[in-house]
Protein 1
Amino acid sequence: MTTPAIRATALNKTFRATDGTTVVAVEHVDLTVQPGEIVAFLGPNGAGKTTTVDMLLGLTSPTSGTIELYGATPHHAVVDGRVSAVLQTGGLLTDFTVRETIQAIAALHGRPDRVDTVIERTGLAPLTTRLVKACSGGEQQRLKFALALVPDPDLIILDEPTTGMDVAARQAFWDTMRADAETGRTIVFATHYLAEADAFADRTVLMADGRIVADGPTAEIRAAYGGRTVTLRPPSHVVDGQGIDEAWLDAVRAAVAPLGVTELEVASASLEAAFLALTSTTEAQEALR
Amino acid sequence: MSTTTTTPTTAGPTAARTTHQPLAVSYAVLDLRRQLRDKVGMFFIVALPAFLFFVFGMGDDEAYGSADVAMYVMVSMAAYGAVTATTTVAGAAATEQAMGWGRQVALTPLPALSFVLVKTAVAMSVAVVPIALIYVIGAVTGSSGNAVDWLATAAIVWLGSSLFAVYGLAMCLLFKGENAASVASGLIVILSFLGNVFTPMDGLMLDIGRLTPLYGYAGLARYPITEGHLPMDAGHDSVWLLLANVCAWTVIFAALAVWGLRRGRERV
């Protein structure tokens, strides 16, 4: 057995709000990620993704539960440079240049030798002398990704890495990521863009209200929770300006037998349907039925 | 692998990684260069006190204590510049933390305490700039005093300015936001007037001023020259009063900084 990249057991995190009430951010999260996996953490805002990421990185301590990264504490894994991250909020000094930012973080890692490598890997070479404040949101995210690559980590955790990027920048970012993943790095990314999980992750972990509500291969999640959609084209004589003839529709509902249907399309539901079904409340799901 | 290795190591995916020591000095140099490039900040830290020295006392060779008026003003302005420097750098450090750079640094092997030491070193290095420049201007334009006056005042100005790093930190932890650092260094101007740094005060204003944070520090910095005698025959301060002022404000600023830090953490 190889040591898992991540082994989190029974994680709980509660905060005390300013008015004294207790807020449960993460509740009973169990998660094991093997080396080499690419895992998407999917969920709406407030689902507990960032809190979970912070705990995995040792930036926040869990209220209860244990976390091991490669068999060590998150702090040890970070100090050893085995784990790094692209964080969601802020995180850059605007009056450094791109190159200085990378040099500064490389100095703190004791890895000045990696500066040129990560600049090349992330395509930042044309921007090295630009001040961070003059960079676009996409360029800043790219720079944060470069910082995460500095220690040459075995596991990289990305929290909403494409926030603030336009479609082209998002595409370019994932192209860079895909190229990097081929080197065998373990990648865990939090996102609320379903398409990103769909296109990039082998495995999807769905979070809602601080809990993991589904965990499995991305394709299976989509299939198992999204159901199937059947699209029918009715014969023309039942369609008029008012829509489809009610009686005919009743007949369709009543019978499984073919009723002059000339075209039948069966499509698997989008991950979006699975997402909505799993993250909406039980009452809302009942209402949908 | 290295030719000096005596025990064979097994390679593989679980092989131990080489540990790399953080290069805190390289980081400090980059950070210092960034601070010195900040034109607006450096204007208030270096150019303004140098200009005030030029206006208020440069070349005034009237005897004063063991030196002359020019040197008295020179020490005061160097103190103002140094304090603005430490306030600005420490305040900016607090703001950087709030903006998330601290989280970025937390993902490196550098221990938190070392980061505080790096920031302190940067603040104290920036403080050297106005002191050095104003003392050089003073020397060139004929401020006169004995060797002890020159060395002791410079040392007190420099070391004492660290108190205002705590002030800058406290202000920016308590009043968050991008311009907290400018507010903190702006308040230094007012506190400098009240602290008898710019124009000599007497009467009620002087009594009020004695309670303000720059008074004790500036008085101590000039003590080698004045031995506590105030300009315009406004009276005399014992060294104990000046020390008590500095100690009291150190406790107050430190308490405010700790309070601000706790408050910031609770918010999460």
Protein 2
Amino acid sequence: MLDDFLTRAILAGLGLVLVTGALGSFVVWRRMAYFGDATAHATILGVALSFAFSAPLYLGTLGVALAVALIVAHLSARGQTVDTVLGVLAHGALALGLVAASFVPSLRSDLDAFLFGDILLVSRADLVWIWGGAALVLGLLVWRWQRLVTASVNEELAMAAGIDPARERLILSLALAIVVAIAIRIVGALLISAMLIIPAAAARGFARTPEQMAGSATAIGAISVLAGLGASFWLGTPAGPSVVAVSAVIYTFSLICYGKG
Amino acid sequence: MSALIQATDLSVSHAGSQMPVLRGVDFRIDPAEIVTVVGPNGSGKSTLVRALLGHVDLTSGRVRRMAGLRIGYVPQRVHIEKALPMTVRRFLSLPRRVGDAEAGAALARTGVPGLESRQITALSGGQFQRVLLARALLNDPQLLVLDEPTQGLDQPGIVAFYELIEDVRAETGAAVLMVSHDLLVVMRASDRVVCLNGHVCCEGTPQVVSAAPEYRALFGAGSPGALALYQHHHDHDHDHVADEGGHAHRHGPDCRHQH
């Protein structure tokens, strides 16, 4: 069954949305969208490094994404304006990655696949990385759920309950880095933020509690993957952008319904 | 009687700033006592509260909290993102999950029964403050800490809220530490008032503090005391937005002192 490229693509997409629903909700609640972008753009540098040193792809993307998460956490703790730091890191790392990629002949031709993803090229090894990373992050979120939600609601209330908001923030940053790193094959460096934000934003209108929002976002993500891959298969559209486009359409409908309610 | 919280020679500076926000503050609160901290904007009231709770690093001094002290805390200006869906019921279960009966009783206690299924962001200011208080009461606190709990409430709302606080104290025996701008209303409800301006400029019973020259110097240039302050309530502007130093209030154009 795994011999079929479409089956592998569906499994890869579902593995990713298993965790982007919940994690994306935190990204929306805590306004971490730009942080997700910065981490994601930086993974192109990771791809270039992996190719240059003939290392496994995910080692490079994971290493760079985690490094960016730690740098941002460190700089913002020292009182730097996070917005500016992220802007520098996001575009600096993307530019550096593109420059580095130009020195790697084998990467020059299929750079697009890493910018926008190529889910139809997902291999069995990719599936192991994707499902492994998604399971790890989902486990982390479930384990610390109450603490993470409390810290997202209000940091003072969290501190009064003995929760360290800085630690919860760092955990979310690292979780985000892992998801961004494993998503590079599926939607690519430029569109992973969309997979985090759009389903969660679409779910907001249907949800009355944080758990309902995370659950609805997961369902919307799954529908987007299936419909997007369907469109790609039958209409020949690019797979990653099709998935994101479907979720954007769902978001638009949710705005219309929610706006009336 | 042993203090719930005792602070000695407390100093706190903000990161990157030379001027300490608090310097040499001694503070204690005993069981079942209502203590109110008053002071102009920027006088370090919230910083004092956060230092007593252990939320900020001290430059010097120390804070001793009674072992196992249960604190119910209502912070200043709790803002909940509209992007975060949250019913009142779910909010009461953060971070410790509580049963429906317990949650319902806490809401009833603070005068907002039956709000469980409402969205937090759809509540009025007064309802939200009462929900915050209900949440603070859930772990059966020995000390309630309320940082400007009546911000954004109208005058009847403010009076009603302080009456509720007094009722809760009478019922549960919890001590109450409040920070407030509502000078006289809150002072009448207090056992002890601490007037803060970076340091403790005076403290004692409400009568003692309102008669102290240091207090008058801070709160009313030429004001004969708290009574006049109370009558200013409707026509002067408490500037909560600009957190610069200076006086707690400015007189409005229609201000008429009754003296």
